[in-house]
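On clarity, I found the account of how folds are encoded harder to follow than it need be. Since the whole study asks how a given chain folds, the encoding of that fold should be made plain. For illustration, here is how one protein appears when written out as sequence plus structure tokens:

:::
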Amino acid sequence: MSITSYNPADPADLVVAVEAPGAEAVRAAVGRARAAQAGWLAAGAGARSATLGRVAEAVEAHAEELAALIVREVGKPLAEARGEVARTAAIWRYYAQAPYEPSGAVHETAAGPGLLLTRRRPYGVAGLIAPWNFPLAIPSWKAAPALAVGNTAVLKPAPEATACALRLAELTALASLPEDVFTVLPGGAEEGVALVEAADVVSFTGSTGVGRAVVRAATGRGVPVQAELGGLNAALVLPDADVELAAGHIAAAIAGYAGQKCTATSRVIAVGAAYAPLREALVKALAAVDDSVCGPVVNEAARERMTGAVSSAVEAGASVLVGGGVPERAGWYVEPTLLADVPDQHPLAREEFFGPVAVLHAAADLDEAIALANDTPHSLATSVHTRSLDAALAAADRLDAGMIRVNAPSSGVDFHLPFGGTKGASHGEREQGRAALEFYTVSRTVSVLPGGGL
């Protein structure tokens, strides 16, 4: 089986083609990683810290090349691609300090002399399955903490991001990461299944259906697993909000990178008198979005899924306020689109479509807006736009979302803070920040008593 990756802005441009290695190759790679893990852990905090720091330097030294590759392979606008490269370097540098973090605590004995310790230790081999939309940042925020605490890692990237993942592997080698400590294996479903079946700890980001299968397979083996499965994210705009500012933030969260972020806004909920001015401002803001912000969706199937959903909603009684079409040019482009009057049970109102399309709702008051926002099987990020601190705090207390952003786009992520959603959006421990260090380690209790007594 051949793994191919094409340029979404120029579908005739083949970025990379490699042969899928197969399940046996995955098992062999995990075996080599397991053999290398003891030496990587024994190298000590100083060696791991220095190596991860060199990876950050290698990413920075090749920043423009990497940004151009991201643009070419996944269609990310150049400004966002440069931002992702900078974030990738920052992620490796942040986790380069983690080996020096305390790995446990000392506790008092219940009675008599002795020493009680808790220590966190690595599991062994981390199996990482990453999506295509952040082809450097997401593999990095999975691999860097796993490596920092002494695991080795095997990464299976999405086929659409194969070239970026292979280049990241080359840069880690350039930074003198020891052989078999970090391995990238391109592949498809066969390789992903094999990795989940062989790894000691699993981290997955991708579609809900595949993610649930990964969770079942890993938990069936008794292996720790975290899975990020996307979200149907809302933006709430209250009557006292700065409507123009809110519209700019929401348009960016709908159409930035063609809406291909799990934190993108796909539902806009206008409260009371905010509806009419927000509708006008948001239509204007989305109409002004160009390719330097939006870009293409990843492939033809994604475009067909988006345009089909819009047509289906219109047939069901929805109205297109802006966009809804396909530009007349090469590449898998979709116009930034806003719809109103979408039936509550239509897929656009219930499912994540991963494109630059959003639905506008009206709510009589904040209570109704929160109920609408929470009426979803998976919620990752919600934005709230208001000048009222009381309203912002009330919404933050009652919204079912893993991340709540006030007067900001839903699509922002702070890599040093926990990342994850609620309900069906996430499974297991959070990613990023200190939470990631805990996920990739297991706690052990050590009792040391004098004279060998028990």
